[in-house]
Amino acid sequence: METAPAPTTAPHVLVVPFPAQGHALPLLDFAALLAERGLRLTVVTSPANLPLLSPLLAAHPGAVSPLTLPFPSHPSLPRGIENAKGCPPEYFPFFIHALTALREPILAWARSRPADDRVVAVVADFFCGWAQPLARELGAAGIVFSPSGVLGAAVPHSLFRRLVRRPDQEGSGDDEFSVTFPAIPGAPVYQWREISMVYKWFVEGGAEEQIRESVRHNFLGNLQDSWGFVFNTLRAVEGRYLDTPLEDLGFRRAWAVGPVAPADMDAAGARGGEAAVAAASLAAWLDRFPEGSVVYVSFGSQAVLTPAVAAALAEALERSAVPFLWVVGAGTSSGVVPEGFEERAAAAAAGRGVVVRGWAPQVALLRHAAVGWFMTHCGWNSVLEAAAAGVPMLAWPMTADQFVNARLLVDEAGVAVRACAGGFGVAPDPGELAGVLGDVVGDKGRDVRARAKDLAVEAARAVEEGGSSYADLEGLVQEIRMLTEFKPISPEA
Predict the structure, then answer these.
(1) Average pLDDT of adjacent 10-residue blocks, the chain of 493 residues
(2) DSSP code of residue 89
(3) Dihedral angle, C-alpha 67, 71, 72, 75, nearest 10 °
(4) Would you tell me which of 45, 97, 232, 415 could form a disulfide with 258, CB atoms 3.0–4.6 Å apart?
(5) Spatial contact of 242 and 150, defined as CB atoms under 8 Å apart
(6) How far apart are the C-alpha atoms of 480 and 477, rounded to whole Å?
(7) Quick one: which of 109, 137, 93, 94 has its CA closest to 44?
(8) Where is the Glycosyltransferase N-terminal domain (predicted)?
(9) Rounded to whole angstroms, what are the CA distances from 237 to 150, 350, 414, 427, 455?
(10) CA angle at residue 175 from 174 to 177, to 5 degrees?
(11) Please, which residues bridge with residue 105 across strands?
């Protein structure tokens, strides 16, 4: 049998991000890795989101191009909003539905390509499931990019596949209803309150049926029409979920290529926005404290703390007397820091606490020697940034995949300690939380700190030549190179 001649130009890949910081940033990091390996990329964006692409475009001129399309309007989204940054989680389903309107202009663009410049693969965020049947229609390989880990992606896909519902009964006990995932290794069980808001919104009738069904078909498209899933994860954390194809991921192939964030501190620091306080200023403050003594506190770009939750956290920080750096964001959460708290923290011995209002250079902060623990909502980007830095975590999940991630980190990887039961509006007991803070910074946190250091070594090794993530990435790139428009791709291929 004769082999087809190798293509004369680099394969052309279409990249479809979801416009939220926690989704777009890792996908753009992954796109950079593809460009470094000689693939040509076109990245779908809108005018307001185009600045997010600037670092990628500047680093790979000629290899990466934007496809700038008007952001689809939607009656349930505020006028002029093109990114979920700073938006409450209940907006996510409407973003998912609105973006389906991009299908036709993308299809028209792809069909207009010359014969020697056809798109051979479509890499789309898992909230852009409509791009998977689009890829099939183009005869391209549809690849789902998951900003979550394998377990964090399998759980919501399982829910939308099986349409799990809690018992039809009244009372607060409903939130304690347990949901089992028998097709996932270990058959994990989660309480209803730990299930993602997007799924609960779907089953509880959060919008008209057309929009809700659009969200469900988003997940089903990933399962039914994709060629495989790419995960920003590594085998040292999720090996048991990568050993065999999972039913809850449609038995699709899986490539684990993480952590995808750049190791270069300057490049990593530029991701996502301009820091509210210069990294050098924060580093100078951290330099005043012993190694591993400071607790870094951040709940990501989406979480909104209620005044009661912020007050409980502030009281716990004061009671514990541990040095801390608390990033509260520039939005609604920044106004809930209790009055007088910052002044008292600054006046305490060694000025032991700082509050940052706005975007912070998280990667650089986590890698500072003085930072010993990270209190986090367990968003997957934050999880991997902490893992790469060797910093153990205080798990305080809020929504989405965060309860799944917290269980993985605490019970399986052993690199985290539970700080709070979690959930939006759930305030911990300040005394109990202060005790946890004191314990982990002291001798009781020694074993978890050691495991976190070991994981950092594993994470660095994974992305180096010969590592598991490096091998998965190289293998995927080689398969994309073999694709041509003359070889239509089916999910069974």
Answers:
(1) 49 96 95 97 97 95 96 91 84 94 97 91 98 96 97 97 80 72 96 92 86 95 97 97 97 97 64 68 93 93 82 94 88 72 82 86 94 96 96 94 96 96 86 95 92 98 97 97 64 52
(2) G
(3) 170
(4) 232
(5) yes
(6) 5
(7) 109
(8) 13-133
(9) 10, 37, 10, 29, 8
(10) 70
(11) none
Distance between CA atoms of residues 134 and 143, nearest Å: 11
Q: What are phi and psi of 66, to 5 degrees?
A: -90, 150
Query: What residues are paired with 14 via a beta bridge?
Result: 42, 122
Query: What distance in Å separates the CA atoms of residue 267 and residue 249, rounded to the nearest whole number?
Result: 33
Which amino acid makes up residue 365?
L
- Helices and strands (H and E) in the chain: how many: 19, 15
Question: Which helix H or strand E contains 285, and what residues bound it?
Answer: helix 279-286
| AA letter at 418 | R
Tally the C-alpha atoms within 13 A of residue 311's C-alpha that lie toward its C-beta. 6
DSSP per residue over 317-369, as a string? Answer: HHHHT--EEEE--SSGGGGGSPTTHHHHHHHSGGG-EEEE-S---HHHHHTST
DSSP 421-437: ---TT-PPPHHHHHHHH
**DSSP-derived secondary structure letter, 474:** H
* Catalytic sites, residue numbers: 23, 125
Question: Would the CA dihedral through 310, 316, 318, 323 be positive or negative?
Answer: negative
* Residue that is written with structure tokens 């990245």 in the block: 43
AA identity, residue 363 = V
Phi, psi of 228 (to 5 degrees): 175, 175
Buried b / exposed e over 344-353, threshold 16 CB at 10 Å, is: ebeeeeeebb
Following CA atoms 168, 170, 172, 176 in sequence, which dihedral angle do they give, to the nearest 10 degrees? Answer: -20
DSSP 193-223: GGS-HHHHHHHTT-S-HHHHHHHHHHHHHHH
Provide φ and ψ at 12, rounded to 5°: -105, 125
The C-alpha atoms of residue 122 and residue 113 are separated, in whole angstroms, by 14
The HSE-up count of residue 168 (CA atoms within 13 Å, CB side) is 1
What's the predicted TM-score (pTM) here?
A: 0.91
How would you classify residue 75: left for phi > 0, otherwise alpha for psi between -120 and 50, otherwise beta?
A: alpha
435 φ, ψ to 5°? -65, -40
Give the DSSP H or E segment for 228: strand 228-231
CA angle 120, 121, 124 (to 5 degrees): 155
